Amino acid sequence: MAPRRPIQVPPNCDLTLGMKCVDKSTPGRSVWEMVAAEEFANPAGILQGGLLGAFADSAMGAAAVTHAVGRKVFVANAEMKISFLGAVAIGDVLVCEAAVISGGSRVAFVESSITANGDRLVGRTSSTYLYRDRQ
To answer: What is the pTM assigned to this prediction?
Structure first.
């Protein structure tokens, strides 16, 4: 087994994709922002859908972590569903709002909404996260 490295916040994947957490002050909720960058466009010139999935995963994972009040935890995404509701143009400002819908000591069910430019819903996601205590 490889030795554990220190936790890096924010992780390299969030930095590479330009994602940033703008609010996680309420337990079980988080709000994230990113700009749809040209280097992540598909051949049609719109944001590749997997990037929306990564965006939602970061937001929902953060919501799951903040839901575990008083505990230090890791979360692992056990499954995720995403519905694409509209195309994302390069340069669009995206916001992902995530919230724990139901959670216990071992599992959290989380949903998120992704909007473009403040008013256009472009994605909805749901996911189940598994908790693991950390030292």
So the answer is: 0.93
Structural domain of residue 114, as residue ranges?
A: 27-133
* 95 belongs to a structural domain: yes
Instruction: Indicate the number of domains in the chain.
Output: 1
Core vs surface per residue 44-63: b (16+ CB within 10 A) or e: eebbeeebbbbbbbbbbbbb
On whether the CB atoms of residues 134 and 73 are closer than 8 A, the answer is: yes
Q: Please report, for the domain that includes residue 76, its CATH number.
A: 3.10.129.10
pLDDT at 87: 97
**Phi and psi, residue 119, nearest 5°:** -145, -10
d(CA 88, CA 90): 7
* One-letter amino acid of 119: D
Q: Give Cα 23 to chain centroid, integer Å.
A: 12
